[in-house]
Amino acid sequence: MFNIFKCILISALLGCLLLFSCSVRTPNQCQLTTSPTIIVDRPGKILQYWDEANIPELWVPLKAPSKLLSAFRKAINNSTSREIKTILKNQLPLEQSLEDRQNISLTLSGKAGTIRPINCFESLMLEQQLARKPMITEPTEFLAMVLSKGSMLRIYFYSIDQPGIGNVDEIDKIVGQAVNDGFKVIFSLHNHNFFLKKANVQGGIAPSGNDVQVFRAQRESLGVEKALITNGFDTLVIDKDEFCIFKAVE
């Protein structure tokens, strides 16, 4: 009888340990630990958010890309350069907008924005969109808004499954409600696509004139501190004080 009781107790303890290990993020593990809360989910549109602990592992340079991101990167590497300054130099003469060309020049010169390798968090957001669309053949954009409250993050993710996000009023309204509830907007993040079938492949991470217009508006209405742009390899970090340096459409 004692042996039976001991076996039951050991089994229960092992079950608890297994459950605990599955629910806690292990050190150096790049992942989200919660399921998203869905606000809108219909064909061609997603708006959702996660509440996550703000831990250092999210902000370190990406070390081990997922299968989705690795496949995306391989397809890019097989078709064009992934070196960011080469991408920007190739893109510069092909852009029709004066503001876009000026912003590429500012990024290349280092006069505004800081280029660095993609980190864990940015890869997780890009993977959300890669899971939705085959972005090599159907380039699409996402927008993530990252808020904080104490030690917690609230991460909003929005996409209309189009090459550009366009009007951001829907997500701005939701984020504004969170700000009214005591959250602070740390940064926005969106991606720039590679268009491998076009003469202007793009893939650069300089902000467009439209991007800068949105950054400035979100700074005024939501208090956004930074704006980030990633292409799956590198990320441009733009501080709020640099929003006025980059050129916006009139």
Strand content: 15-25%
- Helicity range: 25-40%
Structural class from helices and strands? alpha+beta
Numbering strands along the chain, what is their spatial order in the largest sheet?
A: 1-2-5-4-6-7-8-3
**Rg of Cα set:** 21 Å
How many DSSP helices? 7
What is the residue-averaged pLDDT? 90
- Strand tally is 8
Poorly predicted tracts of residues:
4-27
Report the principal-axis shape: globular
What is the element string, with H for helices and E for strands? HEEHHHEHEEHEHEE
Comma- or semicolon-separated keywords:
alpha+beta, eight-stranded mixed sheet, 8 strands, 37% helix, 21% strand
Overview of this protein structure:
The chain has 250 residues and is α+β, with helices and mostly antiparallel strands. Helix content is 37%, strand content 21%. It contains seven helices and eight strands; from the N terminus they run αββαααβαββαβαββ. Strands 1-2-5-4-6-7-8-3 form an eight-stranded mixed sheet. Helix 3 packs antiparallel against helix 4. The termini are far apart. The relative contact order is 0.16.
